[in-house]
Structure formats: structure tokens, C-alpha cells
Amino acid sequence: MKHIRLWHKWLSLIVGIQLLFWLATGLFFNLTGHQWGAGNDYRSRSQQVYQCDTPPVPVNTLKLAFQPVTVSLKNHLGHCFYLAHRTRQFHHYQVFDGIRFDAETGVVSLHVDETLAQAIAMESYSGSGVVTDAQLFNAGASPDHQQLNPLWQFTIDDDLATKIYVHGITGQVTHHDNIRSEIHKLMLTLHFMDYFNTGRFNTPLLMLFGLLSLILSATGIIWLINRGFRPKRT
Amino acid sequence: MHKWVMWIIGLQFLIWSLSGLYFSAFDIHYIHGETLHNPRHAVVDLAQVTYPFHQLLEDYPNASDIALYALTDSKIVYRMRVKGASKARLVDAQTGELQATITQQQALKIAKAAFSDNSNHNIQKVIYLSEDGPSELAPRHLPVWQIQFDDPLSSTLYISQTSGEVVTRRHDGWRLFDLFWRLHILDPFEGENISNPWLLIAALVGLFSLFTGLFLTWYSLLRPAIQRRRS
Predict the structure, then answer these.
(1) Residue B60 has pLDDT above 60, yes or no
(2) What b/e sequence results for A8-37 when a residue is b if at least 16 CB atoms lie within 10 Å of its CB, and e otherwise?
(3) ipTM reported for the complex, 2 dp
(4) B49–A58: do the CB atoms touch at under 8 Å?
(5) In percent, how much of chain A has pLDDT > 70?
(6) Mind telling me how many Å the CA of A8 is from chain B's nearest CA?
(7) Which residue of A has its CA nearest to B206?
(8) What is the mean pLDDT of chain A?
(9) Average pLDDT over residues A100-113
(10) Pick from B42, B61, B41: which is nearest to B53 by CA?
(11) Residue A202 pLDDT more than 60?
(12) Which residue of B has its CA nearest to A221?
């Protein structure tokens, strides 16, 4: 039992502050819920029908070096393009494995330009602010550390300091950010111990502290049960 | 005080630690079943697409979210969503005919091709789910074909009956993750609501117990060390 007590005391010294972060941020998530920190306060989504300026060319005329797993037709404000995917991907931040074609000419169109990207961004925005800054981040250089593709960032001058992100190849609005989502991200950083900004929670540091806190909890429970069954000293 | 409060919350601390350790130990992409999926299981021979996109748009002017893909190596389709309809529809990419829903035979072929470990494992069970599904499947995907493989993790693919797409992938690693998640956020029934009152109470009691514990740490370890240094 002496060792159990020693382990518990010394582990509390090592893990104690992080435990405080875990509980405080957990309480924060409980009080704010899923939606508060999502960044979608001024986000609008609509299911659009296609309105291509000219009819899209047949896909069997596209010059592709591979057989795709899927070809999708995308429409942004009258401009249509094809996305031909070589492999099935689950996340927009994975390196885009495919080719983008202008659907009206069949010509390869590698990136979304600033004018189109800004129009796409504002189409997803329901607030009253205007764009004050536009920036294109190269793959891996954006504030979203997971994003491995070019990414447009549009800064809006509204009450929540909204930022809108548009995928530089597919034209998809990847996400909105604002003051609330920045606070939420800070809380996630503390909760996941992502102090080196990896964007992940499978880090050796978190695993180590998880293991130490498990031992702290287990030694505490053993100590508790042992004290509970021992007669009181007189 | 620390001892008495821990009688109330101690077990939850153990659960939080164990579940947190599990979450950090496994890559979330593995948990979500992304490694179960063969990323190039049915490719499209574009030369076979004789019913073009522009014809589809003329025939279905209210269509959105159109994608062309192969159900199996010989069957190429368009999937589209029509305004007002809750489910996707399939159109044959060679003839332009609307397709019936996915049959069991088609679902088995799709699943076998889509499963990344199909050379080592076989299909064990096939069930059609139309209105009620297990908690591991979001209800919006119904109706589906549930296809379970005989691998050690009981991997299961869910194939949409309306679009033929693999809409969900599950295995025992996910099921354990889900159980731990429900215990972690203290929402054992739904596993979704992090704003529930039990979590609030546990967090507040936990914080109180932590502060008493930190006080004891200071009192029993740090204070004597500081005093020894001074003397």
C-alpha cells in the first residue's frame, strides 16, 4: 500500500495541471455544446440545381490518363466543371487525387481563381459583412494544418470576424471560422494536448498522460478501497 | 474531503482515463473504417458512357449533386438528387433509363469488391434494413443492405439500396470506441449530447475533487520540500 500511495502522490504532481485542463475544457464543451464553436453562425447551405452557361461536354471526350472511380459535376454560379477522382477519398484535406476540368470546354483547369473562389465564399455567407482580405495558402501552409491542398481564405468584417475557406482545386467551401470557433479550437488544443499544432490527437504526449492518469485513478481507487476497509485509528 | 468526494466520482475518473487513452491510441481514420475500403474498387470506362451529362440535365432539370460511378465493373450509373425527393435516384449511364433499387446480388458484389481485405475473408451475413437499423448506422441512410464479413473484427459494410454506395463502414474497433465515447460524455443511450446534465455535474464534482487533490499534493509533497530547503 505504501507504493500505491507514493505512486498516487507523485503522479498527481505530474498529471495534476493537465487534469485541470481536461476537466475545465470538458466543462466548457458541456456548457457550449456542438454548435456554438462550429463557426457556422453565418453559414448558409442550399441544394442547387445546375445552371451551366453552356452544356457540359460529354465525359467520353475528356483526356484522362486513368480510369476514374467517379466523375462529379459541380456548379458554381453558372460555371460548371468536372471533378474526376482517381481514388475514393474521405476528406477534403487529403491531397486531391484527381483532375479538374472545365465542363464547358473539356480543358483541364487546375485551380479555382480568386474571383470564382470569392463568389463561392460569399454564396455560403448569410451575414452582412464584406470581404476585406483574400489570401491563397499553398498546400500545407494554411491555418488548417491538416489541409494538404491549396486553400483560399477570405476575411469578412462582421461582428464575429468570420473567415471563409474555399478549397483551391475543387471549389468546395471547406469551413467557416470566427471568434467562437477560435476559442473552441484553443479548448480542443488544451483537451487533446496538441501543443505542437499537429491537428491530431493520436500523439505520444497525450497517450503518455492518458496512461499516467489511468494509473493515478487506479491507485486512487485502490487506496480509497483500502482505507475504506481499515478500522479508524484511535 | 478529497477522499469523500472521490467515493462519488472516482470511478468516472477511471472511465475518463481509460476511454481517453483508447481514443488517443487509435487513429480516427482507422476507427471510422476508412482502411476497410478499397479506394479503387470499381472504375469507370468513360468510353462506355453514351448517355451524357447534358442529356441528363435536359431530362431532369431539377437534378443536383450528380456523380458518375460504377456499381460493378460492368454497370455504370449516374446518381442524382431531385428537388423534393428524400432519396437519390440512379440513371443508367448508357441508356438513360431510371434504375431500380439495388438488389441483394448487386449489393454482395459491391461489398466484396469494396472490402479491402476481400482476398482473406468472406461474407458471413446479409440483411436488408428498411426502417430500423442498429445504432451504429445513421437512420438517414436507410434503406440499406447490411453486409458482415467473417474477419476477426466483424467488419460490416452498409450499402445504400437507392444509390449502391457504401454509406457506412463499421468494425469492433469502432464499436468499442462508441461505447467508450458514450461513457466519456455520460450519454449512454444516444451517445451524442455533450450538453447533458450528468456530464455537467460530473465535471463540477470532478473539478472540486481535483482542487482538493491538488491541495493535498501541495501540502504533502511540495510544502515539506520547500520547508526543508529553507531550513
Answers:
(1) yes
(2) bbebbeebbebbbebbbbbbbbbebeeebb
(3) 0.88
(4) yes
(5) 97
(6) 10
(7) A23
(8) 91
(9) 92
(10) B61
(11) yes
(12) B10
Residue B223 confidence (pLDDT):
75
Chain A residues within 8 A of B52 when measuring between CB atoms: 56, 58-60
- Residues within 8 A of B (CB atoms), A 59-78 only: 59-60, 62, 64, 67-73
Q: Percentage of chain B surpassing pLDDT 70?
A: 100
Which three cell numbers mark B47?
468510353
Is residue A15 within 8 angstroms of chain B, CB to CB?
no
Contacts of A34 in chain B (CB under 8 A): 194-195
Smallest CA–CA distance, residue B130 to chain A, in Å, is 25
Q: Please give, rounded to a whole number of angstroms, the shortest distance from the CA of B49 to a CA of chain A.
A: 6
C-beta atoms of A213 and B17 within 8 A: yes
Q: Measure A157 CA to nearest chain B CA, in Å.
A: 31
The secondary structure of chain A, three-state, reads: CHHHHHHHHHHHHHHHHHHHHHHHHHHHHHHHHHHHCCCCCCECCCCCCCCCCCCCCCHHHCCCCCCCCEEEEEEECCEEEEEEECCCCCCCCCCCCEEEEECCCCCECCCCCHHHHHHHHHHCECCCCCEEEEEEECCCCCCCCCCCCCEEEEEECCCCCCEEEEECCCCCEEEEECHHHHHHHHHHHHHHCCCCCCCCCCCHHHHHHHHHHHHHHHHHHHHHHHHHHCCCCC
CB A44 within 8 A of CB A124: yes
Q: In this structure, is the dihedral angle defined by the CA atoms of residues B45, B48, B54 and B56, taken in order, positive or negative?
A: negative
> Which pLDDT belongs to residue A233?
53
